[in-house]
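Lab channel / #folding
Pinned by the channel admin:
"Please post every new chain as: sequence first, then the structure tokens as a reply. Keep commentary short and put observations after the output so the thread stays searchable."

First post following the new format, from NK:
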Amino acid sequence: MLARDRLIVGLDVPTVAQAEAMVETLGDTVSFYKIGYQLAFAGGLSLARELAEDGKQVFLDMKLLDIDNTVAKGVENIAKMGVTMLTLHAYPKAMRAAVAAAAGSPLCLLGVSVLTSMDDEDLIEAGYAETAEALVEKRARQAAEAGMGGVVCSAAEARTVRSVIGPEMAVVTPGIRPAGSVADDQKRVMTPRDAIAAGASHLVVGRPIVKADDPKAAARRIVDDIETEMLGAANG
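Reply from TO:
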């Protein structure tokens, strides 16, 4: 996998026009884009299809969770869109339904373990007795047992998740912040190089790129960091 294919740029912008402009600005520096709620509800699902048709990889961040039949029917249609990755909350029944629905397609299903904006106190408030790290480990194991393609977790838990799920599944880490950038609303963050070293296969980066004065240069620096870590690991 090329270094640039491990960077997923979050198109966290309010309009399709702005997203298209960002894709044009980033050019060949970036091959993989995330479309989440904000853009999806502004016409972003059509953009996801167009990007896929243009040879880009698309990470559709919908975090599905519903009754089994509803999840399955949604996944069946999403699999026809040509996107690369799809998220759903890592609840065992939902994951099993999604895996069955995606069978035979190249769609990589990702189980969202614990949101990177949440910490132990947030989980207690939500009614969970486990720490973030313990819950991430539990859901990673359940994702592997369900036959999912990978797990979404904080880079802080990437090493633990990798030890649970093995080398083949994807470990996708949001909350990536290059050295010197602000954390925004993320609570469990890590630099690109450290995340790759911890076992992440893909890094999701939104605001540090799309809100940068020079988005292309910001993306290139992150790709260079990923490549440096990959070369170091290969030579180590």
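NK: The chain has a mean pLDDT of 93.
TO: also worth noting, The CA atoms of residues 155 and 194 lie 8 Å apart.
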